[in-house]
Amino acid sequence: MSVKFYRPEHQVPLEMHKVRIVQKLFLPTVEERVEKINEAGNNTFLLQNKDVFLDMLTDSGVNAMSDLQQASMLQADDAYAGSETCNRLKKALHEVFGTEYFLPAHQGRACENILAEAYVKPGMIVPMNFHFTTAKAHITRVGGEVIELVSESGLEPQNDNPFKGNFDLDRLRELIDTRRKDIAFVRIETGTNLIGGQPISMANMKAVCKMCREAGIRTVIDASLMQDNLYFVKVREPEYKDVSLKDIMHEIADMCDIIYFSSRKLGFSRGGAIITKHEPTYRELMEFVPLYEGFLTYGGMEVRSMEAMAQGLYETLDMEVISQGPIFIEYLVKELDDYGVPMIKPAGGLGAHINASAFLEGMPHNEYPAGALAAALYIAGGIRGMERGSISEQREPDGTERYAELELLRLACPRRVFTLSQIKYCADRVKWLYDNRDLIGGLEWVEEPSVLRFFFGRLKPKGDWQQRLAKKFREDFGDSL
Ligand SMILES: *Cc1c(COP(=O)(O)O)cnc(C)c1O
Question: Is residue 390 in contact with ligand 1, taking CB distance under 6 Å?
Fold first, then answer.
């Protein structure tokens, strides 16, 4: 239940926690910000954290931990074999998901590596609602192919469908009918990351799992963003309004064959896990853990992270805990949308997404609108977002550019990290930037690595638009930071 304010016009999302450890932030001047972003090659991945005021790059490994998580880390039982920490984590997984078997891994992509090694052979396909970068990389590395079946609305920026992560069931049916033998497994991503943290409904998940079970096809759920998906199921899917989070989680674990997740997101910790109810599946996957990760009691994880994960998973069953991320993001999206800033809607789970192609209307893909907007927002407010557009794509083998379908600037909201006034500040600076969008120019490459160019590549502004933007900032804000 949410808290209602006496004066409706004062209604805002309310933090259901208090802050007991703080980290001092620094906000460089606008002139310094122009300098810093150019030292970083106009690539927000290359900014130093000390120069960043609001770090909205990612929600991975940067979520706030609770007091109980911090306390749990002190009881870590650091034994190679038979560790009590491992037993406590197993118990938490069993209670939260209802699954019996657990395989540890050092993070989400390590689970993906194990699943790809075990099940994907050259020529096989893995249908999924939408890919995630690391999941796709592991599947293609072993010769498999990813087939995306997300419903049409999932790719439409302004479509208000509450479950944009849903599968197109007709296309799944057709694929099963024509290529059943080639399917390694069907991957279901909750809180579908790359289309804006958009959820999948229980009804859709159930239909997918039922269809696969009847056809004898394995289903694998990527639960990395499950906490947000659970929240959206509760508030957007009427049948589940009165069902407890625990019962929803158990129902999900019942319908599929395997669940895996990154605990850098789910459980507000570090590490990863593969869990299942089926002993044969557990045995099939078990051998890969000592090979790639570590002994079965820790799988590459640090014991303190495992304790924090166990406690964090229990806390995931608390609506007041899991709602904090989505309600702050919804507030930010609404503020900006009301002002006319083109946003991806409805608000999703891991952050707010600005449609950079519409924000910088007319800027061609080869001037990288999403990257230019990321650099401009850092100049405007010391805010570090992440380019999710053409810079994040890879060139075709013949060297031509592959442009992104959507040029997005992602403003991640690490869970329970920012206060509402910081979110308001972010909205304010984006609004200022929107009113001054004519001043924003494009970017061009200075150094373009052939792999993972978005991590390490360096760009420069075309012309002196950044100086002109800083000058306008001074005119409008005087000597303010
Ligand atoms: C982050 C993420 C992963 C990968 O997890 P890591 O811990 O970063 O390796 C996989 N799937 C989804 C949906 C994610 O969001």
Answer: no
